[in-house]
Amino acid sequence: MKILVTGSTGYIGKRLIPILINEGHDVICAVRDTFRVDKNYLEDGHISVVEADFLKPETLQNIPKDIDVAYYLIHSMSNTSKDFEALEAKCAANFRDYFETTKVKQVIYLSGITNDTFLSKHLQSRKNVEELLHSEKYALTVFKAGIIVGSGSSSFEIIRDLVEKLPVMVAPKWLNTKTQPLGVKDVLSFLSRAKGKTELYNKSFDIFGPEVLTYKQMLLLFADIRKLKRYILTVPVMTPKLSSYWLYFVTSTSFKLASSLVESMGVEIIGQKSEINQILDVHPMSYREAVELAFQKIEQNSIVSSWKDSMVSSGRLKDSLFKYVNVPTYGCFKDYKERKVIDMDKTINRIWSIGGSTGWYYGNYLWKVRGHMDKLFGGIGLRRGRTHVSELSAGDALDFWRVIFSDKKDKKLLLYAEMKLPGEAWLEFKIEDGLLKQTATFRPRGLAGRLYWYSVLPFHWFIFNGMINKLVEVD
Asked: Which end of the chain, N or C, is less packed with Cβ atoms under 10 Å?
């Protein structure tokens, strides 16, 4: 089959593509920014990449018309725009209008369980998208999932943060809301096995795990799996805004995503039973099994995708990564240092392992202080960490930076700052002629930006000097 995957750089899309390729299909990845595409895709003869923005109908002409199945995996749970409902509706309408002119037979849409009479804005938006995707020209298959549990999923990482950081939790009453968590492996099984199944045409199915659990039970079960003793007290007086701040300060989520989650978590999400498990021979694992499998992936350093790498996880970058590749020079402050490289492989591996649990090699306590300050001013802080321990790709989140360019063969790594700043900042590592060249560039915004640069200049000298020394150090 010839299959199109939208949202192919997203959490589900990144995991679905290898499954489709292993099954022998030809996959077309539709992306807004080809700069973010995994380089392995470009080398695979069964994968082709097209640049298409579903908010811009004219770009959809790049998508071939001889497609058999299309996956619609476009969501904006953490979109910072107040008009996200209108944007999602526009994406869906543009998708439908274009694909009605193609040969596509089936469109598969992953949505959220929406059978409750009261829906959050995001679940209502997903329901609207489902209605917009219906067409007489192709068949629509809809899967509605609740909480998705897997390594790198937002729900898994948020629960992990809460459990591992707080021995005692004074929590909002929505922790008593019931839901049916579903392992990401099972989600992928539903999606991959549904293609070409005529009995699923123009039908909608709720997909969910075998247990009905409250969020409180999920937290306590997670703690039991991690062999941690935790106590949770729920209180009725915590407002949605306070609940959002509670999640924001304790977990690695952004405030916008925290607000969206709080709104959604107040709604009971219980799926409606159907024959879909039997039709596709999928028998979802328990919550405990899903969590244990997620930790196996983490321990093996084989996390395929993470919600933290979403371009809207910080809300700072709204354009193509290509726009940030050319580091400006005019009106900028720079901190440039270079050192001779003795052990090339060791230095390259250190550069590509920077941040996250590895740290920044020098003055880590100062980096942590800067992260806490950023969090206090509404930024993302250091809590996103990194998805992989030793690999970086364009578009990956790296603490409060975003990877703009990453090429080990070219020996160049370029980061863009997503922290709260009165300006813009880049950090570049490049090896040329046996020298490691480390450049921090800051383009100030007004007087505040200039004052900021001079105020942190003494710290920069120690931090950047110590960091480059460690990167080229021979043990």
From this structure: C
**Rounded-to-integer distance, Cα 37 and Cα 53, Å:** 14
| Helices (H), ranges, 142-198 | 154-165, 184-194
* Residues in Cβ contact with 345 at an 8 Å cutoff, skipping those fewer than 6 apart: none
Report residue 2 as tokens: 């010839």
- Each residue's pLDDT tens digit, 326-369: 898 888 999 999 999 999 999 999 999 999 889 999 988 888 88
Q: Are strands 168-172 and 231-235 parallel, antiparallel or unpaired?
A: parallel
Q: What is the pTM of this model?
A: 0.79
3-class SS string, 356-372: CCCECCCCHHHHHHHHH
User: Measured on CA atoms in the order 185, 191, 197, 203, is the torsion positive or negative?
Assistant: positive
Amino acid at 18: P
180 and 146 Cβ atoms separated by less than 8 Å = yes
pLDDT of residue 78: 47
In the structure encoding, which two tokens stand for residue 321, read together?
A: 């990564």
Residues 153, 155: Cα–Cα separation, whole Å: 6
* H-helix segments, 72-176: 84-99, 121-133, 154-165
